[in-house]
Fold:
Amino acid sequence: MVLISEFSGGPSGPVLRAWDAGCTGKDVALPPAHANYLASVRESAARLAGAGGESLVKVDAARAQGYADTLDVAKFDEYLENVNGWARRLPLVFDSVAQELNLIALVDLLQLGSGFRQELHKATGRGASDTIKFGCISLHISQTPVDARGMQALTLDDVSQNFGIPLLGEERPVVKGSTAIMVSEAGPLRPLAEIILGCLHDTGVRLEQGGYSSLADFIIRTCAEKPTAEHLVRKLVTAFPSLRDAADVDGHPVYLFKKAQLIAHDICQRFGDSDPKFAFPDIGDMTLFVDNVIPAVMQHHGLLVPCEEIAAKIQAGKELALVEATAMRAAAIVAAQLVVDRAGSAASPLEMARFPMCQATLDSFWWREGKEPELRALPRLVCKKTAYY
Structure:
């Protein structure tokens, strides 16, 4: 029997098209030069939620206040301790701080694929986030270069092998009724592998064009200029379309910047205590790193109430349109701020928490809560054609 792949040849053409389709924010106008990019996320989310966005997703302000008043402080601290330490628990040996920083940034650059969650669990037994960590750790252990040039040299097979993502699916006979020659069909996870490779290739190209040897080099030099989360996020989303998490809704930009903020957060968590240029004083100004998990948990708590059409799609596991997913994610940021504002009042039990209450810590709490057995089965947002979450 002869096995023929329908997908031979180099990755540059079709793969970059898949990545291009997932970078929905690459052509969205960025905030003005004088604007604070973290504030722009809040402001654009609030504008969408208040200017017709409520017809898609309602934020329940009363439930947000009640939620803040009854949140379990001990549970909040426990979950924050668990999530915040992930980078410190990497079972790896690094030659330098820059190498470790580069791997953490690479993991966050590739925090995508949530729309393929079901397919990943079926094929690999891992979800999207664990698949990305697994793949990046595999690249590190195999000593595969992941600097600017190394990213560009990776192939689709490299992604498949290191991340454990199968490229091929069912086989079918070329001639009906004969198994002498079989042709392989593209597997359901191939688009995910293509988006991952597109992110790597494009980021590597832009790093090299900008005179940077790696993501770590870019981040170190950027933070040496100005050691704030806002400055790093601004530079990241300006330089790399794979991090420009934004959408145009009715002619207005909506900024979410999930992965860029996540990079800043994790670098601060890991290196802020040892290097002042990573001890960002404005870490509390960041918003939720809103993905597919956080809105599902918030909807479960009654903080978000999607319209009937969106609710039906989520329940059925159907893919959301870009405007629908953006409305859910933006509403999550608005609702989270209501919880944070209420938690900052004198009467809040969260005054006793070890960790400060802000959108970043609330995100970590909800993300960990979403892994609880009783919440893991919640239907989540599905959006496969995205490079952002």
